[in-house]
Backbone:
């Protein structure tokens, strides 16, 4: 397979464009290229702050093959480290747990504080000698990955050179300023995981557009018709869709979740669903939000970690469970589509497909972003060579 | 000392950090010389550090006194 794909056709105007070539969904070499061009170079979603709610909580995660550790440090700040000891490269934390004092490497017991400082190097200068001139603890703290929390999502910039999160995502943060307030994770009944046999980008593409709703989610037709939706398009940053007829979930006696405080009247009936490039799918409503962090596990495998949030910390458990069930049903309805598109991309004559100029704008915008970032990555690499 | 060794092995097997702090500190107190004492103190200190144990600062101060940990 040719590992340098032709992506020029992707960036044509939508009425003439083709989608990304098959290799961008099935070729391990392109997956690796996109890892750097799309996921490491910007702000990618890793997890949620609710994964580490209390001081000392530590959760190891593998992100694109990289062992990472999410930690709530002693000051309450969220930090992300490479989960690797600076001594002999041992994995530091194998399972989620509470760090009571320091992170102790299980191999030779070098210890790190929760803010990543190397605080102990036992016997490094010989038995009972815990210092050595050749070992400067100040230079041997854990490798920290740039991290930022917004909408409770932990975003990381692995390359370390992206613009600050608030600059890179200024437009989206302004658009959703109404929701920039405490979000209360619903707890264990408000999170679930879907393992899907598709490339992560297909989950993005499907999420961005409303075109499929009447066919794949026919239950929505009764109150949320295709014409009630609008495109959301911000080149190079995000894409998605909104609805003008959001209807709140109601309990048996007509009870609803409380609204977020001081939000615009727009949200009385509107809801929006946006992918913050590259891999975080977000949804906002007057009474709840959700975040879906896509974890690419290979060219043809993706894990979706889904979390639901509310305006208060005392929402009704049965109502939350009902809401979770409802969303799980909707997201599960999409699985056959993204897995079908994945299998379809093994058809060698498929040319990336065409877009509906009227309906596929957000999806094309995502493709164009991918193509531009990949092209930029190739140019930079070529110049370096 | 044989009894202490057995207790230490049991504490390691049980991953009982608090016991390890206490027992290694005890081993340090019983050690015949400073080097041996600092070996055991180091273990007591490391397990205390891991746990956020109340004796962490005291154990560290003992190691600093013998030049086995930096003073700052």
Residues:
């Amino acid at each position: 397979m040719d590992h340098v794909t032709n992506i020029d056709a992707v960036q044509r105007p939508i009425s003439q464009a083709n989608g990304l070539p098959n290799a961008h969904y099935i070729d391990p070499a392109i997956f690796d290229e996109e890892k750097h061009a799309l996921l490491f170079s910007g702000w990618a979603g890793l997890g949620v702050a609710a994964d580490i709610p209390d001081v000392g909580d530590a959760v190891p995660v593998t992100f694109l093959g990289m062992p990472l550790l999410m930690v709530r440090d002693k000051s309450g700040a969220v930090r992300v480290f490479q989960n690797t000891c600076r001594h002999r490269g041992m994995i530091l934390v194998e399972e989620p747990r509470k760090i009571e004092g320091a992170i102790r490497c299980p191999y030779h017991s070098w210890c790190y504080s929760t803010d990543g400082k190397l605080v102990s190097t036992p016997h490094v200068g010989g038995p009972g000698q815990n210092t050595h001139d050749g070992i400067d603890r100040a230079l041997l703290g854990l490798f920290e990955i740039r991290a930022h929390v917004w909408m409770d999502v932990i975003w990381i910039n692995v390359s370390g050179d992206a613009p600050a999160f608030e600059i890179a995502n200024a437009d989206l943060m302004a658009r959703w300023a109404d929701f920039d307030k405490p979000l209360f994770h619903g707890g264990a009944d408000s999170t679930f995981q879907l393992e899907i046999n598709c490339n992560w980008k297909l989950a993005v593409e499907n999420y961005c557009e409303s075109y499929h709703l009447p066919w794949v989610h026919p239950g929505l037709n009764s109150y949320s018709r295709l014409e009630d939706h609008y495109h959301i398009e911000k080149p190079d940053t995000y894409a998605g869709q909104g609805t003008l007829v959001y209807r709140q979930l109601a309990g048996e006696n007509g009870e609803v979740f409380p609204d977020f405080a001081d939000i615009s009247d727009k949200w009385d009936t509107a809801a929006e669903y946006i992918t913050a490039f590259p891999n975080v799918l977000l949804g906002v409503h007057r009474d709840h939000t959700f975040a879906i962090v896509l974890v690419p596990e290979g060219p043809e495998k993706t894990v979706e970690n889904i979390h639901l949030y509310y305006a208060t910390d005392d929402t009704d458990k049965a109502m939350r469970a009902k809401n979770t069930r409802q969303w799980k049903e909707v997201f599960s309805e999409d699985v056959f589509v993204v897995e079908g598109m994945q299998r379809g991309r093994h058809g060698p004559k498929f040319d990336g497909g065409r877009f509906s100029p009227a309906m596929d704008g957000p999806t094309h915008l995502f493709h164009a972003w991918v193509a531009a970032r990949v092209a930029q990555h190739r140019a930079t690499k070529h110049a370096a060579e | 000392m044989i009894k202490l060794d057995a207790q230490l092995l049991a504490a390691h097997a049980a991953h009982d950090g608090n016991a390890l702090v206490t027992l290694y500190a005890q081993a340090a107190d019983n050690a015949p010389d400073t080097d041996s004492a600092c070996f055991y103190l180091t273990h007591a200190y490391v397990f205390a550090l891991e746990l956020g144990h109340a004796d962490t600062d005291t154990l560290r101060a003992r190691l600093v006194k013998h030049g086995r940990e930096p003073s700052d």
Q: What stands out?
A: The longest strand of chain A covers residues 288-298.
